[in-house]
């Protein structure tokens, strides 16, 4: 895996990342740090990537478990160290999993497997951060229209 990050130049602190798969991610700094607040901060991108990594795992594991999953949202709330390096010190993941007749024990198992075995991002971050998680199941009683 590789990525190229380039400074967009003056004025400001905007950076453009091009991923190995050919996608573009823009990042910027806070105005007090010379940024113009045009894009997420780099550490916000790290947090978002971690949320995407674990949500991907949870959906995949639940599908493989035969669950009728129809949605998965994860909200991450974090705390960072006050002094440099300002690593994450706490991250709480709250999953809202939507589907039909989802089994609570299988949702809990999927989240646990993601955090302990599959999600490389959260496993890396737990080296500096206390990782906690919670979840809720939203029963989707609405029928999906057939086109």
Give a verbal description of the structure:
With 147 residues, the chain is α+β, with helices and mostly antiparallel strands. The protein has two domains: 31 residues, no CATH class; 98 residues, K homology (KH) domain (GMP Synthetase, Chain A, domain 3, 2-Layer Sandwich), CATH 3.30.300.20. Helices cover 30% and strands 34% of the residues. The protein has three helices and six strands; from the N terminus they run E-E-E-H-E-E-H-H-E. The strands form two sheets. A three-stranded antiparallel beta sheet has the order 1-2-3, with no helix packed on it. Strands 4-5-6 form a three-stranded mixed beta sheet, covered by helices on one side.
**Cα-atom radius of gyration:** 18 Å
Tell me the name of the CATH homologous superfamily of the largest domain: K homology (KH) domain
Order of secondary-structure elements: EEEHEEHHE
Which segments are poorly predicted (pLDDT under 50) over 5 or more consecutive residues?
none
Q: Which CATH top level class of the largest domain fits?
A: Alpha Beta
Domain count, please report it.
2
Spatial gap, N to C terminus: 39 Å
Main sheet summary: 3 strands, antiparallel
CATH topology of the largest domain: GMP Synthetase, Chain A, domain 3
Strand content: 25-35%
Average pLDDT rating:
95
Overall geometry = elongated
Count of alpha/pi helices: 3
Percent helix, as a range, is 25-40%
Structural class: alpha+beta
How many extended strands? Answer: 6
Which strand order does the major sheet show?
1-2-3
Protein name: OsmC family protein
Organism: Noviherbaspirillum pedocola
Pfam families: OsmC
InterPro entries: KH_dom-like_a/b, OsmC/Ohr_fam, OsmC/Ohrsf
């Amino acid at each position: 895996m590789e990525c190229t990050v380039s400074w967009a130049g003056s004025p400001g602190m905007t950076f453009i990342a091009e991923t190995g798969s050919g996608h573009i991610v823009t990042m910027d700094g806070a105005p007090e740090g010379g940024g113009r607040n045009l894009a997420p901060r780099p550490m916000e991108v790290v947090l978002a990537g971690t949320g995407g990594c674990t949500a991907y795992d949870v959906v995949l594991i639940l599908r493989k478990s035969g669950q009728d999953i129809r949605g998965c949202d994860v909200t991450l709330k974090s705390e960072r160290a006050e002094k440099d390096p300002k690593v994450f010190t706490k991250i709480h993941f709250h999953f809202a999993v939507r589907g039909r007749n989802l089994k609570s024990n299988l949702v809990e198992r999927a989240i646990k497997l993601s955090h302990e075995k599959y999600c490389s991002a959260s496993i890396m971050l737990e080296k500096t951060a206390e990782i906690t998680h919670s979840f809720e199941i939203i029963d989707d009683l609405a029928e999906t229209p057939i086109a």
